[in-house]
Design brief:
By secondary structure, this protein is α+β, with helices and mostly antiparallel strands. The protein is 50% helix and 17% strand. Keywords: Isomerase, Rotamase.
Length: 604
């Protein structure tokens, strides 16, 4: 498995290196002094900083490679889809930022790790590349620590061991910091009891709802005075944010004709090996670029007509069981199909897929196209450069800050927003490196924030005023229900008198969603403090007034609580520890100076 992963490292590093093809990337959108600073970062191989401390490109690629190998081992596959590769990259980036924030706190608290602690960690915590290696598995599937200890004693393992030791010297202080966070969490016996009650105390409830939307009769038309008062109170809800519209071009990072030919030659070589008697399933497992089916020897399972792309389906259904096809191409790449089982409109098939991928030379040429366009856009003008390079002018819709416009890759949201809202009409962006394309944008038009007039918002104001009047009618009915209950009538009697329905629940707990009741409102708070036979209301919500009766209350089981108390206490401490840590980390990230140079390409 590990040899297979290493054979495929070229694929992952090709994808990861997209942002680093010709030069390193940087975030700054300004000009002048920032340009020299970004060039120094590029020349030093720095792709980001956290509170001034650098993140180096070679370290980032090393960490992505580690994460990729671990993902392959956990999934038991030889390759990952391109979108998952990018997810691994982004998760690794955010993990590095988190670790640098933790390291700053470790230094502040002066947390250290002794040699004894380090040796113990090495012996008891194998690295993922070994932990998931089949060579270190016993027959029952458990990890073979005896074999692992033999590896640790082998002098040939010294270089790897030194690297693992260095990694742990950094990781263990972070773990100690996490332990400190969890140790500071306090969970009282009263907290445990209340948490258990929320999960196990049960209630059988009945309720009625006085819904303003169901009020009979019409309401008077809103007067001009009422509309003006409503507008003065609510106009802030309808304010229009600042909008911007961008022109942009994109250079798609797609394989060249030469790259397609390379993939064709590879699939033809596989076909020759099949003709010479090679095992189809083994070749699929070792060489197919379909990560899902490759792990199963190319097995696609049973598929029916209409479930495949037309060309794939036509060839698949033309084959007999045991036959495999000639190489052919679809939009996904080059294929060879083999049929295991064939019925009238159903087949069990295997396939080998070879995807054409842009080579280093292609990626470099595409980036050079983007660079050349960027330079000409500044010298000739944006639209003139588009015409000179044979590119297509594209436009976004008007969009507010925080939204990624259609046509722009989501990963570029922050960069595109910062550029669009902080630069003047006509200005041209740096080259943004997305996952699939390079983008160059120009600010086309800006639309200032404003509050619409009363006339523009008249339909909305009329709706609000009518809603308020309906709510007043609902309140009057709720008062009549209250009076009837005070006179000793039952919930059913007052509901019948007012034409309301009584809703029944099954046994519910405090964490149960009650059908028809808005979640996280005063209704739940009122319902779960009732004793059997008690009625409470009216309870106001945004959809009307509620009256709730507790029909039966089943207390929690004290014996079961005692048997589960310690386990629940540990769980609460774990949950609160995570909440405390997550809140702290979120605040630290907000306060940190995080600079990401990966996705903006400098043009000298």
């Amino acid at each position: 498995m590990m040899q297979s992963m290493r054979r495929n490292m070229k694929t992952i590093m090709l994808v990861v290196a997209v942002s680093f093809v010709v030069g390193f990337v940087y975030l700054q959108l300004g000009q002048g002094g920032l340009k020299g600073q970004s060039r120094r970062n590029r020349e030093a191989g720095i792709i980001g900083r956290v509170n001034g401390r650098p993140i180096r490109a070679d370290y980032f690629r090393y960490r992505v490679g580690q994460a990729w190998e671990q993902a392959l081992a956990e999934k038991g596959v030889r390759n990952l889809p391109d979108d998952e590769v990018m997810i691994v990259e982004e998760e690794t980036w955010h993990r590095i930022i988190e670790e640098m924030i933790l390291d700053k706190e470790v230094r502040r608290r002066r947390i250290i790790v002794t040699d004894r602690e380090l040796v113990g960690a090495i012996r008891s915590n194998p690295p993922p590349a070994i932990l998931y290696n089949e060579a270190f598995r016993l027959e029952d599937g458990s990890f073979d620590f005896a074999r692992y200890n033999q590896l640790l004693a082998n002098p040939q393992a010294a270089p790897w061991l030194r690297q693992y030791e260095a990694d742990l010297r950094t990781a263990l202080p972070r773990q100690k910091l996490m332990i400190d966070f969890f140790a500071a969490v306090q969970v009282s016996d009263a907290d445990v009891r209340e948490a258990y009650r929320e999960e196990h105390e049960q209630f059988d409830l009945s309720y009625i709802r006085v819904d303003p939307r169901e009020m009979e009769g019409t309401v008077p038309e809103p007067t001009d005075e009422e509309l003006a008062a409503c507008y003065a109170e609510n106009k802030g809800m309808f304010g229009k944010p600042e909008l911007v519209r961008l022109n942009f071009v994109k250079v798609v990072r797609e394989p060249s004709d030469a790259d397609i030919l390379v993939a064709k030659e590879e699939i033809e070589q596989i076909h020759e090996e099949l003709l010479d008697g090679a095992d189809f399933a083994q070749l699929a497992q070792e060489r197919s670029d379909d990560p899902t089916s490759a792990a199963r020897g190319g097995d696609l399972g049973m598929v029916q007509r209409g479930q495949m792309v037309p060309q794939f389906e036509e060839i698949a259904f033309s084959l007999k069981p045991g036959e495999f096809s000639e190489p052919f191409r679809t939009r996904y790449g080059w294929h060879i199909i083999k049929i295991d089982v064939k019925r009238r409109d159903e087949i069990k098939a295997r396939h080998i897929l070879i995807k054409p991928r842009p080579s280093w030379e292609t990626l470099a040429a595409l980036e050079e196209t983007a660079r050349s366009f960027w330079m000409d856009a500044h010298e000739l003008g944006f639209e003139e450069a588009i015409e000179a390079h044979g590119l297509k002018l594209m436009k976004t819709d008007e969009f507010p800050r925080g939204i990624i416009p259609i046509g722009i890759e989501p990963i570029l949201k922050d960069l595109v927003n910062d550029f669009g809202f902080e630069h003047a009409i006509g200005e041209i962006s740096p080259i943004f490196a997305g996952r699939d394309s390079y983008f160059v944008c120009q600010v086309d038009e800006k639309f200032p924030a404003y509050t619409p007039s009363l006339e523009e918002l008249r339909p909305q104001m009329e709706g609000l005023v009518r809603g308020e009047k309906k709510m007043e009618q609902a309140f009057e009915k709720a008062e009549r229900v209250t009076e009837g209950l005070a006179e000793g009538r039952s919930l059913e009697q007052v509901a019948a008198a007012e034409g309301l329905e009584v809703y029944e629940t099954s046994l519910v707990t405090r964490s149960t969603y009650i059908r028809g009741v808005p979640p996280r409102t005063q209704v739940q708070g009122a319902a779960f403090t009732l004793e059997a036979g008690e009625v409470r209301g009216p309870v106001p919500t945004n959809i009307g007034y509620f009256f709730i009766r507790c029909n039966e209350k089943i207390p929690m089981n004290e014996e079961t609580f005692e048997s589960e108390r310690m386990m629940l206490k540990a769980r609460l401490r774990q949950e609160r520890g995570h909440d405390t840590y997550d809140s702290w980390l979120q605040e630290q990230r907000k306060a940190a100076r995080i600079e990401d140079y990966r996705r903006v390409i400098e043009v000298s």
